Amino acid sequence: MTEAVTQPAIMIPQLIVGLGNPEPKYDQTRHNIGFAAVDALSRFWQIPLAENRKFQGEYGEGMASGGGKIRLLKPLTYMNRSGQSIQAVTSWYKLPPESVLVIYDDMDLPLGKTRLRLSGSAGGHNGMKSAIAHLSTQNFPRLRIGIGKPKDVANSDNSESISHVLGRFSTAETQLMSLVLQFVVECVELSIKQGVEKAMNRCNSRTIENIDSH
Question: Where is this site: Discriminates between blocked and unblocked aminoacyl-tRNA (predicted)?
Fold first, then answer.
């Protein structure tokens, strides 16, 4: 009888969290691309989101195509307290941290780039600092969406970075980001069907570009 080789556990997300800030003034800003990603998943899977006081966020659950039960969350706590909302859901449903996939913006990645990872530090992102603090671990998957840096980054001060992050995309960038969000949906679907590690190969190798960009 051959001995069974123990395979490393496949990470399958059960809770998808998009980071952002509530209030209309933050709507459609670069920093809220995590919210936009969860909205895209909500439309794709036809899982409606509704405000849930207990979870301090907009929450919905349903079935992912080709996968099992999936939960969607947009914390309404403001970015730097996102972890409170995430922890409320994981505690209530007894979900392990590694089943939480957090989607958020990253200035260090150019527009059109996405990065899927199994774990890692917050990298200076306040929403992720809060998530790591409340889940008491860095070992949960995350999908970073590139929002690019301010143009004159060498001379830019902190206030310029903040206004970049809290600014809105240009018309061309908005077109590009809608393609990026379609790709994000594909990546999340793949993570649920085959595990995060398998999905990383596909999601980290592609750069999305506008079809008419020359």
Answer: 21
Check if 164 is active-site.
Answer: no
Dihedral angle sign, alpha carbons of residues 5, 6, 12, 14: positive
Q: Which two tokens stand for residue 122?
A: 């917050």
Taken in order of first residue, the domains within the chain and their CATH numbers are: 15-203 (3.40.50.1470)
Q: Is this prediction's pTM over 0.70?
A: yes
Instruction: Please give the sequence-ordered ranges of beta strands (E in DSSP) within 138-188, or none if there are none.
Output: 142-146
Residues annotated in the binding site, as ranges? 26, 78, 80, 126
The one catalytic residue among 31, 125, 134, 164: 31
Q: Which of 143, 137, 134 is nearest to 77 (CA)?
A: 134
